[in-house]
Amino acid sequence: MDALGGRGVAKRIVLIGAGSAQFGFGTLGDIFRSPTLAGSCVVLHDINAASLRVVESAARAFVGDRGLPFTITATTDRAEALKRADYCIISIEVGDRFALWEQDWRIPQQYGIRQVYGENGGPGGLFHSLRIVPPILEICADVQRICPEAYVFNYSNPMSRICTTVKRKFPEMRFIGLCHEIASVPQHLPRMLETPLENLEFRAGGLNHFSVLLSVRYRDTGRDAYPDVRRKAAGYFESLPELRDIHTFLAAEGRLPSPVEEQALRRRARPWSERGLFRTILETYGYLPITTDSHFGEYIQWAYEVVDHKGILDFYSWYKEYCQKKPEARIRVTEDYEERVVPIIEDIIGDSGHEESAVNILNDGAIDNLPGDIVVEVPAIVGGKGIAAVRLGQLPRGFAGLLLNQVAVHDLTAEAILHSSRDLALQALLADPVVDSYRAAEQTLAAILSAQKPYLGYLT
Length: 460
What we know:
The chain is of the alpha/beta class. The protein has 18 helices and twelve strands.
């Protein structure tokens, strides 16, 4: 059976936010290369009819030209899309993504709050959550009413706060958050340790975008590889190409650079690019973050002093330009899956018992020194009965202390949304370790509520 042929188990897979070319095309490419999903109906849903038509046209042409065993439908009617759904994949944003993101980032800074980024943690993460969680709750309410047995996979950010709020509102829903940041571990470890990925057994855990490599072991000898990570990491990251150079290469080529190409990139490297905080965490706490300064730094009150601000700004500028370019209406089927959702669906259908390296799921005992009602990012076993978190036990005390600083923030964010409460939103802001001034918090919240009234007017 080749990657595009054969017969699988026919399912109804709904892509919510499919009008986004970046999400829609990438996910369709993964679905179309899956023999397990052959025969399935793929439903494209978006509220933007024009964007939806572009993705629908590309999907129909791709399937028709290759004679693939998939059915494509598209609709702006969410209730219609969800009928008989087995799997729903959410990737949405609200409003003008980058204009609002920059308000989330810059308005707190205007009032003296030193946040390094504005997407997932800190005040920006709160404001982003207050905008995007209500429409996701509306989607989930429809799922609960129309297809309550469906698995729902979320790609939208802020991942941890979205998932915590959804599980609080719909505790029985099969709702799982997925993020690609874990891919940095298999990208770096084999090169750093000079051994194939297949020879490494590793686990990471924490919160989304706030997670570290907890353990790594050589399969052939059973030996702990973390002493080698700590010994080799500095030299490895000193010589890495700048992240913006890699991102530019990926955008142009759609692949990782070859060893020769990477050496050319390394020759103009700036050591530890976007890894100032990354390096501090590794040296001070002894654990390797799985993401870079822009994400990790949003959660830590002293991060502003040590992050690589230039690297963060370079990345943001590149990412904004990349997302705002009108992409070619093209679906690609690559040698491997671009994201993890399709392999996870295959593992559920096939009852594989495979260990997935990172999912966002209700803690419920996976991490002993975090509360059970907060969503965490941990490995999980995927099989016919669903997705079960791997129990990691106690996290290292120092790192757990940083994570515990976020518990009240995520809890109050969820409660502010569920109760439409401005007072609780202010409390969430004041609980955030990045915020060190009551007046700044109050003024920042007032400014954001005014600037984003069409999205936050529900807070009273």
